[in-house]
Design brief:
Blueprint: E1 2-6, H1 11-14, H2 31-45, E2 52-55, H3 59-72, E3 77-78, H4 95-101, H5 103-111, H6 123-140, E4 146-150, H7 152-163, E5 180-185, E6 191-198, H8 203-206
Parallel strand pairs: 1-4, 2-3, 2-4
Antiparallel strand pairs: 1-5, 5-6
């Protein structure tokens, strides 16, 4: 079983900026994000124990993993390959800014999984990278309950891989910060999606924060 947790919010999340694994755009969690990480850690502590906690190398996921690991008594293990997609020249821009400056490139990227942002990574490349990284983790920890802190792109990649869904479905998946997605991987190569984007554990925070 693999339980994938999206990181808590950053300032880029709040401003709806592309925040990939290119350049200098590796923002930390803001206080709301740390609160979300603490809430998901508390939720996970009530579930069956995990054997290992792995995380994307990016700062926001490592910070989320540190908060979760401290609550669960697990030392996070950084796994290269689980980081967010590379968005190239779009990194750090808002969606609106990209639509204004690169309308044709954005339309092509949204319509075809094989198209990459200028200087970036296509969805098909992202899925291949994430799937390879996760396959190594699963092979090294067969039969274990694996906890992963990662990104929207990473978790969407795992979901389409598990379901055998078309990559075009990725842009139709909504994943809240600090949400929980659970997948099962079987020895015969099959997989299943057990839960997607659980977020009820964050309801107590809603009264303290505005969107």
């Amino acid at each position: 079983v693999t339980v994938a947790v999206r990181h808590g919010v950053t300032q880029h999340s709040v401003e709806r900026r592309f925040s990939g694994s290119d350049g200098d755009h590796d923002p930390p969690l803001i206080q709301r994000g740390r609160d979300q990480a603490a809430a998901v850690a508390e939720e996970l502590s009530r579930r069956e124990a995990f054997d290992i906690l792995v995380t994307s190398p990016m700062l926001r996921t490592r910070q989320t993993a540190d908060i979760i690991g401290a609550r669960l008594g697990l030392e996070p293990v950084v796994v290269p390959g689980l980081q967010e997609a590379r968005f190239g020249v779009w990194d750090g821009c808002t969606f609106a800014e990209v639509m204004e400056r690169w309308p044709d490139e954005m339309a092509a990227w949204l319509s075809a999984p094989e198209v990459a942002p200028p200087g970036g990574e296509s969805l098909s490349e992202l899925v291949s990278r994430v799937s390879a990284a996760m396959a190594q983790v699963i092979a090294s920890h067969r039969g274990s309950r694996i906890l992963v802190t990662a990104h929207v792109g990473t978790i969407r990649s795992l979901v389409v891989a598990a379901l055998g869904a078309p990559l075009s479905a990725m842009n139709r998946m909504e994943l809240s910060p600090a949400s929980i997605t659970t997948l099962s991987w079987y020895a015969d190569g099959n997989a299943s999606l057990r839960t997607f984007a659980e977020a009820s554990h964050l309801e107590s925070l809603a009264a303290h924060w505005t969107p």
